[in-house]
Automatic annotation (TrEMBL):
Enzyme Commission designation: 3.5.1.88
Function of the protein: Removes the formyl group from the N-terminal Met of newly synthesized proteins. Requires at least a dipeptide for an efficient rate of reaction. N-terminal L-methionine is a prerequisite for activity but the enzyme has broad specificity at other positions.
GO annotation terms (biological process): translation
Name of the protein this chain belongs to: Peptide deformylase
InterPro entries membership: Peptide_deformylase, Peptide_deformylase_sf
Source organism (scientific name): Thalassovita taeanensis
GO molecular function: metal ion binding; peptide deformylase activity
Top-rank lineage group of the source organism: Bacteria
Catalyzed reactions: N-terminal N-formyl-L-methionyl-[peptide] + H2O = N-terminal L-methionyl-[peptide] + formate
Family membership noted in the UniProt record: Belongs to the polypeptide deformylase family.
């Protein structure tokens, strides 16, 4: 497996609508495995293909955070929210493409998601808690949407300026 570099906001590839995956291939499965490896290494609980510059509808996640609990890596091709609760919940979100910036985002507390798994089988499952927040955050990435798009323009600009500075600093090293 190969670690892939994660794009940092602002980057035009993070603002694009990603295309549905037409057919699973070994290359796509390898990409998904690389994404999981990259996510665990970061470390993070979710990663979307556009974050490594691939504009296809693929996300990976694992929101098991307790040490000692078995990991639960999920690979989702063409994930789709098919139902959401009226109940909302607020989580302090972060993003591997926006390092060290966190903000409260309100989203439906529970969602039902349908996707194609690594073996090409259709799956559907209800998610709640951190899983619900994470899967919605990752699906947003496939539509060119970042968690900072839920914030006020002022807050968003502040974070974007910090990221521009971070990228300049990193380029200098
Ligand atoms: Zn993210």
């Amino acid at each position: 497996m190969t670690l892939r570099p994660i794009l940092i906001h602002p980057d035009p590839r993070l603002k694009k609508l990603c295309a549905p995956v037409p057919d699973l291939s070994d290359a796509l499965r390898k990409l998904a495995d690389d994404m999981l490896e990259t996510m665990y290494d970061a470390p993070g609980i979710g990663l979307a293909a556009p974050q490594i510059g691939t504009l296809e509808r693929l996300i990976v996640l694992d929101c098991v955070k307790e040490t000692g609990e078995a990991p639960r890596p999920l690979i989702m091709f063409n994930p789709e929210v098919v139902a959401s609760s009226d109940d909302k919940s607020v989580y302090e979100e972060g993003c591997l493409s926006i390092p060290e910036q966190y903000a409260d985002v309100e989203r439906p507390a529970e969602v039902s998601v349908r996707w194609i798994d690594r073996d090409g089988n259709e799956q559907q499952e209800d998610f709640a808690g951190l899983w619900a927040t994470c899967v919605q955050h990752e699906i947003d990435h496939l539509n060119g949407k970042l968690f900072i798009d839920y914030l006020t323009p002022l807050k968003r600009q502040l974070i974007t300026r910090k990221m521009q500075k971070l990228k300049r600093d990193r380029a200098r090293v």
